[in-house]
Design a protein that fits this description.
The structure holds 3 protein chains of 3 kinds. By secondary structure, chain A is α+β, with helices and mostly antiparallel strands. Chain A has 10 helices and 16 strands. Chain A folds into 2 domains: 109 residues, no CATH class; 187 residues, no CATH class. In chain A, the strands form 3 sheets. In chain A, strands 6, 7, 8, 9, 10, 14, 15 and 16 form an 8-stranded mixed β-sheet that branches. Chain A has a 5-stranded mixed β-sheet with strand order 1-2-3-4-5. A 3-stranded antiparallel β-sheet of chain A has the order 11-13-12, with helices on both faces. Chain C is α+β, with helices and mostly antiparallel strands. Chain C is built from 3 helices and 3 strands, in the order E-E-E-H-H-H. In chain C, strand 1 and strand 2 form a beta hairpin. The chains are: A alpha+beta, B alpha/beta, C alpha+beta. At the A-B interface, helix 3 and helix 8 of A face helix 2 and helix 4 of B.
């Protein structure tokens, strides 16, 4: 028996309790800007979810959820021979199945897909975002940027995680809304973060995904607890990881930053003028830079300085 | 309000209730909304749901997070509609000079007529009807003005050109909208073959454009035929919502019902019309005047057939249950209705060839669905 | 200048959204000044040249540059030539 507590987290639940929610009416996950109700029928996925969503409050699976999704075993022969799982949302499976041993990456990517396609009440930038001292920095995603690794390292260094994948912008006021989710680390990044932050809560490793080896960093308690607190964007930093390179920070003309942010967003085109206005607000209020770095510690201290610390 | 978690039919019932009468949302809990939004989205009726809630002035009582979701869909549908207008504009400039009669079909037609049912309606393609003898001219014009033909397997390409009533789909410069160019409403060897010349004869010109639309009666017939002759009826509530909306809009016009029956008789489409109105009445309480229903009953099928169709269509037509997916009964019904639609498309000797050859490409295409990243 | 054009000015550059074409454009300094010259209402070519290049006599090639810039802006639907503005200076 557990004493009654107002704030039970997923980590406080027994494994069988998490499984019961996932196979029953679902596990409620409150990311901040939106909520998801997740179901799953494999014990190993339940265990992985329990690890990477450990700090999330155990909310009842009642009420309205922006995303209702599940990861289910594919029936028939695919249950036995090279077993597969499928991502199901709104009663249907929009993608081809994945091998059963890549279930958590499938869930995470599937949730991303749902958010990117169905949440046009926000402007969704393709960027990481962290906050400290009431000021937020956007880290737009580009190939070779090491954005996720940098975002992960920042959150392990006292920065509040707003999001790794989606920079969620409130269309009315240009503020960044948290969408706190586990950070997907790929290949070498996994060990880099393990080294950088000993004891960082990294979930199970999935070696055979389409993007190589993937593992997820669980968001910390502080970030999860403050998922309802928007942040003012003050800096836009385009990161570029170059091994061995000393850190350098270069100003980017704001109009260029605008165009890059807009070009990279998930739904800029769809939202048209509303998106233009939101990006204008974000860029007007921010300093824009390109950051080249070979060492995470240097990059982090540069970002800290930018945010006035 | 029924406990909406019971079955596929119940969740569809919730959606149909709200679509028929927006004030039903007064009684909805957040749990109900959660189910309703999922069902509407999967039935591609989320935009229409939002439009009806707004038209019924019920938006203020919708919970904020739900309202945000409806507004999100509104933004998405507004964008799609804009894309369709651009496509129509480009089509007008490309095909206009050819002076070929172009009849817009379905969604694009509803849009250009400014029909209420076009509001926030989900569109993923533009369908046009052109005379068969002008097909290659049209195809050439499209290909040389920025449209690309979809890359198809040779069997599928041959299938389209030989047996189908439409060309393989086009896409303008990598956009997501498909352009389907038809030369008939239904496959040319099918059991019902509405005569394109008659359709063109009754078509209505849209001023200041090179486009026409089918006569209102023919639009209703087309929707009925499309559902009953050309589809497996699976998750097709949307088509029935269209039929109901078209009837509501057009039945105000003098002579509409008489013309509808006349055209149905002319095109041999009485039976599909009978079915379409039956399901529309059952699901959305579409009003059909008694004397019209009486005349329509001339097309009533044999009891056993009627019973089969009732069971199969009502089982297949509803969207999947959000948590449970399609029940086995629905999957079976869909398969039977799919065979029915293929059967109706071909004379018997071709049916078997197509069935076998098509089974293999279908299995292959299932493996090629989109990836989440 | 197109009605309803949204302009975000940043130092010497600007980003512009055209609600008719739904396109977003990045404009350099010269283009911005040309567009701003037209914000208060239709201008003659001479006025635009003055606003952008300054109030001195300009060699032909520079005037031509402004002319072709305006043609580009027109192609993007951001500005429109009316008969009055066609008058040469």
């Amino acid at each position: 028996m557990r004493p009654l507590s107002l704030r039970v987290r997923v980590a406080d639940l027994e494994a069988h309790e998490v499984e019961a929610r996932l196979t029953g009416s679902g596990l409620a996950l409150d990311f901040g800007a939106l909520r998801a109700r997740v179901r799953a029928d494999q014990a190993s996925l339940a265990s992985a979810i329990r690890k990477v969503y450990r700090e999330y409050p155990d909310q009842p699976s009642r009420g309205f959820f922006e995303v209702n999704a599940s990861v289910e075993r594919v029936p028939g022969i695919r249950r036995v021979i090279r077993s597969q799982v499928k991502f199901v949302v709104d009663g249907e499976a929009p993608f081809a199945p994945f091998p059963a041993d890549t279930h958590l990456p499938l869930l995470e990517w599937g949730l991303n897909w749902c958010i990117a396609n169905n949440c046009n009440q926000f402007l969704l930038l393709h960027a990481g975002a962290v906050e400290r001292g009431g000021r937020a920095v956007l880290l737009p995603a580009q190939p070779g940027s090491g954005k996720s690794t940098l975002t992960a390292a920042l959150t392990c260094s006292g920065f509040r995680l707003l999001s790794d994948e989606f920079g969620v912008v409130n269309l009315d006021n240009g503020m960044l809304l948290p969408l706190v989710r586990p950070i997907a680390l790929k290949n070498e990044s996994i060990d880099v973060i393990r080294e950088f932050a000993r004891g960082a809560p990294i979930g199970p490793t999935f070696p055979k995904t389409r993007k190589g080896t993937v593992a997820h960093l669980a968001p910390d308690q502080f970030s999860v607890d403050h998922r309802g607190v928007p942040a003012q964007p003050r800096a836009i930093v385009f990161p570029k990881y170059v091994a061995g390179k000393p850190v350098s920070l270069e100003a980017v003309p704001p109009a260029r930053a605008f165009v890059k942010l807009a070009g990279n967003a998930f739904n800029y085109e769809t939202l048209g003028p509303a998106a233009f206005d939101a990006v204008r607000t974000v860029v007007h209020g921010s300093q824009c830079f390109r950051l080249r770095y070979g060492d995470l510690v240097d990059a982090i201290s540069v970002v800290a300085r930018l945010l006035g610390q | 309000m029924p406990d909406a978690h019971k079955s596929g039919l119940d969740t569809a019932h919730l959606l149909l209730c709200v679509l028929s009468d927006a004030s039903t949302v007064r009684a909805l809990t957040e749990d109900d909304w959660n189910v309703l939004i999922q069902v509407a989205r999967s039935a591609r009726l989320l935009g229409v749901l939002g439009a009806r809630v707004e038209a019924g002035q019920m938006m203020p009582i919708v919970p904020p997070a739900v309202r945000a979701q409806l507004q999100s869909e509104q933004a998405a549908m507004a964008y799609r509609t804009r894309m369709v207008w651009w496509e129509l504009d480009r089509l007008a400039r490309t095909l206009g000079p050819l002076r070929v009669p172009i009849v817009l079909l379905k969604g694009a037609a509803y849009l250009i007529q400014g029909l209420r049912c076009a509001q926030l309606r989900s569109l993923s393609d533009v369908d046009v009807l052109v005379p068969r003898d002008r097909l290659s001219e049209v195809e050439e014009a499209l290909l040389s003005h920025g449209w690309e033909a979809k890359d198809l397997e040779p069997y599928d390409d041959r299938y389209y050109r030989q047996w189908s009533h439409e060309l393989p789909p086009f896409r303008y410069g990598g956009g997501f909208l498909e352009l389907d160019v038809h030369h008939a409403l239904l496959p040319p060897l099918g059991r019902i073959r509405p005569d394109p010349t008659t359709l063109f004869g009754h078509a209505v010109a849209i001023p200041d454009t090179p486009f026409r639309t089918l006569a209102p009666e023919d639009q209703v017939l087309h929707a009925a035929l499309h559902l009953l002759q050309d589809s497996d009826c699976t998750n097709r509530l949307r088509e029935i919502v269209d039929i109901d909306a078209l009837i509501q809009e057009f039945s105000q016009r003098a002579g509409f019902w008489d013309e509808l029956l006349e055209h149905a008789a002319e095109h041999g489409a009485g039976r599909p019309l009978w079915y379409a109105l039956r399901f529309a009445r059952r699901l959305l309480q579409t009003q059909v005047p008694e004397q019209i229903q009486h005349r329509l009953d001339a097309y009533v099928p044999r009891l056993i057939v009627r019973w089969f169709m009732d069971v199969l269509v009502s089982t297949a037509v509803v969207p999947p249950d959000p948590d449970r997916g399609y029940p086995r009964a629905a999957r079976v019904a869909s398969l039977l209705l799919l065979w029915r639609s293929v059967w109706l498309r071909f004379p018997p000797r071709l049916f078997l060839v197509h069935s076998i050859t098509k089974a293999i490409p279908r299995l292959r295409s299932q493996a090629a669905r989109p990836q989440p990243m | 200048m197109e009605e309803g054009l949204r302009v975000a000015r940043f130092d010497s550059e600007a980003v512009v959204f055209n609600p008719v074409s739904w396109q977003t454009h990045l404009l350099n300094d010269t283009a911005v000044r040309a567009l701003e010259a037209l914000m208060s209402g239709p201008q003659s070519l001479a006025d635009v040249v003055t606003a952008v290049l300054g109030d001195v006599t300009h060699p032909d090639h520079r005037v031509e540059m402004i002319q072709s810039l305006l043609a580009e802006l027109e192609a993007l639907g951001l500005v429109e030539t009316t008969l009055a503005t066609c008058a040469s200076s």
